[in-house]
Amino acid sequence: MKIINPKNYWKANLKIVLILLFFWFLASFGAGILFSDLLDKIKLGGFNLGFWFAQQGAILVFVFLIVVYCILMNRLDRKYRADKN
Amino acid sequence: MDLQILTYLMAGASFALYIGIAIWSKASSTNEFYVAGGGVHPVANGMATAADWMSAASFISMAGIISFMGKDGSVYLMGWTGGYVLLALLLAPYLRKFGKFTVPDFIGDRYYSKLARFVAVLCLIFVSFTYIAGQMRGVGIVFSRFLEVDINTGVIIGMAIVFIYAVLGGMKGITYTQVAQYCVLIFAYMVPAIFISILITGNPIPQLGFGSKIISEDIYLLDKLNNVLNDLGFNNYTDSTKSKIDVFCITGALMAGTAGLPHVIVRFFTVPKVRDARASAGWALLFIAILYTTAPAVSSFSRLNFINTINNSSYESTPVWFKNWEDIGLISWSDKNKDGIIQYAPGNSLNPVKPIFSDQRGINGERIVSNELTKNKNEIYIDRDIMVLANPEIANLPNWVIALVASGALAAALSTAAGLLLVISSSISHDLMKKIFRPSITDKQELFLARLSAAIAIGVAGVFGIYPPAFVAQVVAFAFGLAASSIFPALIMGIFSKRVNSSGAIIGMVSGLLFTSSYIIFFKFISPDLNFSDNWFLGISPEGIGVVGMVINFTFAMVISFFTKSPPEHIIKLIDNIRAPE
User: pTM of the predicted model, to two decimals?
Assistant: First the structure.
């Protein structure tokens, strides 16, 4: 792996953020709104899937995304500090 | 025990707890007053952020609104949580790295301009005061219904409590009272939800009960609700009726607005390190999600319960809660077909929508309204705000649960009010006085000014509570639209662009603000009769217009910056510094 300096630290950071924001958009604006009606044809227990995403699923995905973000950023920070020494 | 005595005991005990914490954590410097000395543990900060964020609107109103909107109500669920992803990924870590006291601090320094700081202070004060008005109404409703004191007395008691711990304790006092308030409010929200979920579906976890079958019937709760509503002539609960573009924009405006709310952002200044800021955003959203995933379940339970209890039953046989809420004017029944039986159907029962009560009673004992009766079959007016508060009574839960819900609602309203008061006071004492008008004041004088402006702000908030502006519900759209179109883009560009300069940022903020506020003012205040989708710009309602304002802000800021001078060298260094790891 290449050495992490301030410049590519920022690039790596942006990459993590953009990928996570893609899933953020997909879970809420995508599954909860844009193709929600389509997903509603699929049943998940007592829920229509689109309705479930709009009222519960998106929120769970949001929590998960922030957890992943914390883990990835802490790993990046550690790598940066190790490379500096 | 009597409900009223129980409520006094529980609310009183919780107030004593908050004041005790405030005395224990008194602030002694501006650093402690503004950001709690920067030493708050990320989990504690997560809880405090959750209480700070979840207001009377989240606790009292949201489930009720969703209850009557069905799938359309999802905009609030996604919008008010999705903003935390933006906050965690795009703002909190960098603003923590910047490491000062207030949101205008960042805007003023990054755009090297007192004018930019001043514009940010104006946006902040406007957004925060509109928000406080809503909290005070919440406090008023709870006091008048459950403690049976006059609304004014209720508001004054609430003000006195907030005064003690916000003015004494500053951010330090507020943080630890908010931790306690989170515990009170989440417990108060979950207990009745669990009870009701067990009663209806047999599943003790409301989030799962929401998708379960109804006890002793072979039908899913949501299917049953759809059937019941269809029979009465309503649309499916699980289908959307609004246009996609409007739902899209409202959700976007609520998300960006949430991420741009100063009283939430400032909470991330209170943790020791950047990694703590990231972690506490995660904790905050987790603590918020517990309530936010329960709320839609509560909405569906209470809609079904409400219909089952009220529709087709005679007024005489309605439970006590129905008459209690009618007495304080949040429910009304007008017997259109003179059969003595309550009929619930689509459409507003009255014109104008809210009941105007006369002093008389009808033959069944109901309060008579002087509104014109509409032609549809619906005989019921119900204020959406009462669903959560009335829910335990509708489901026949024991008195201590009802008292608990009242204390939880107070905790939600007071914790948010305190957080808002703090950002208002710090923007006045720190940004206006110390940084713009009187740079020579000492730390001690600034601390005194901070306390003084907190005290004045509480007074103003109290006036809002006692003389509630009729437009409280409308101004919520304002707060989010303005935060989304002014503060949020300025912060994002400040971090992610090295090219956007002071003139770009100022013109961007002002144009986003002007566009959004004139659109909302036009449709909400000047011509409310034109406020329907044919007249809207691209079919976007005033609630969602903040997204367009945000795009305008970004566009102006970037175009103008491109044609004017780059920011000076020391600003580039500042940006490099907030982007770099610790």
Answer: 0.90
